[in-house]
Specification:
Elements lengths: L2 E5 L5 H8 L6 E8 L3 E2 L2 E10 L3 H11 L5 E9 L1 E4 L3 E9 L2 H18 L2 E7 L4 E4 L3
Parallel strand pairs: 1-5
Antiparallel strand pairs: 2-7, 3-4, 4-6, 4-8, 5-7, 8-9
Helix pairs in contact: 2-3
């Protein structure tokens, strides 16, 4: 694992790609999550992400679990604060010796990040209403 960061600044894909660059890597799998303009047929105008103080350490721990003999390097960043439609919310990049491991690991890793890292999403809708997503 080479990069695991929670940031209030716009995410830069090239930083994640540079972090996983390695001569042993034959493939790079990437997931980029962006803010979309709807959720369940409701128009979304913005999102706001909040992170628990332990979120970055948890992100690092989750990423480290996915480093295996097949995986060369991992970089993951999640944005916090207010984001507009089209803004990048999360980036996960995995380099591996072969494409299958890179793609499979990037997919499994984003699922684990969403399930385990204490970051909460507050959605704002065009009708003026709002909701917190997956907050119990």
């Amino acid at each position: 694992m080479r990069l695991a960061r929670i940031s209030g600044e716009p995410l830069i894909l090239d930083e994640c790609l540079d972090a996983v660059a390695d001569p042993a890597a034959g493939g790079i799998g990437c997931f980029i999550g962006v803010v979309r303009d709807h959720d369940h047929d409701r128009p979304v105008t913005a999102l706001e992400y909040e992170a628990h103080p332990t979120a970055e350490a948890t992100l690092r721990d989750v990423c480290e679990r996915f480093v295996t003999d097949d995986v060369v390097a991992i970089a993951a960043e999640h944005r916090v604060g207010r984001l507009g439609i089209g803004d990048t919310a999360v980036v996960v990049v995995v380099s591996a010796a072969h494409r299958d491991a890179a793609l499979r690991t990037s997919s499994r890793l984003i699922d684990a990040i969403k399930a385990e890292v204490p970051i909460w999403k507050h959605q704002f809708f065009a009708d003026g209403s709002d909701e917190w997503v997956n907050c119990a």
